[in-house]
Amino acid sequence: MKNRIKFSMTVFISMIIILxxxxxxxxxxxxxxxxxxxxxxxxxxxxxxxxxxxxxxxESDSAEKxxxxxxxxxxxxEPIQIGSGEEAIKFLKQQLLEGKDDNISFGTNGEIEEDExxxxxxxxxxxxxxxxSGKTGNLGYYKVYQDGTYExxxxxxxxxxxxxxxxxxEKYLSRLREVEKEMETLRKNSxxxxxxxxEKEQVFRYEVWDKELNEIYGVLREKLSKEQADQLxxxxxxxxxxxxxxxxxxxxxxxxxxxESLHFVAxxxxxxxxxxxxxxxxxxx
Length: 285
Known about the structure:
- By secondary structure, the protein is of the alpha+beta class.
- It folds into three domains: 1-78; 80-159, no CATH class; 165-285, Substrate Binding Domain Of Dnak, Chain:A, Domain 2 (Up-down Bundle), CATH 1.20.1270.
- It has helices at 2-77, 85-95, 128-132, 168-188, 195-223, 226-251, 260-283, and strands at residues 104-107, 112-115, 118-127, 138-145, 150-154.
- Strand 2 (112-115) and strand 3 form a beta hairpin.
- Helix 5 (195-223) packs antiparallel against helix 6 (226-251) and helix 5 (195-223) runs parallel beside helix 7.
- The protein starts with a helix and ends with a helix.
- Residues 162-196 form a coiled coil.
- Residues 46-77 are annotated as: Disordered.
- Residues 1-20 form the signal peptide.
């Protein structure tokens, strides 16, 4: 009897141990399978993200490459079409070293011309510092064609015009016409926005013409006889009074306003220019 009980207990305990072992194994298998599934999902996600990044990177590189190609094509193949004098000046400034020099003025009358090479605008370069020093300051003229080509077709010497001709009247008339053209170019390309800026430009204009007048007057005084020189001196003094009185009268139209002094000096400049031509035409041979 005791032996049976002992045998039954032994069998029962064995069965419990076996069942417990089986349960532990199932949990381990389940845990391992779960971890494997998690790892598989993680690897899959990483591979998926990597694949998406590669796709986006490729698309970005492709778009950037396409953008660069379009830019290059635009820069190299797009035809140049210059349609105005202002565009001709802007284009020429980009091509020449003088375009970076603030002392060099670029000017054009804006008129389109034509030769055997095509249609073009004429652009004049003037060295302002040379102009102020008493020389013509003209650095030359460029033909700027509408297709974006350009060429220098006249380069004036900076020496005094009096060294280029044997006829006083013609050489000084030539000089005055050159100065007149340069002043007109500066006027057309003026960027003055305020009355003060405009007045400064008129002061400069007056100083240029006054310098020319003094030079012409000095030459005449040396060439004329004493009697003629005295007569010229008296007439010149009368003219100076006339110039200042006329300028004053003109400025009174704007009396008390910001433009009063502007019109005074502008009138002085215009009358001085006219007097330069008068002296050359009336007194020079």
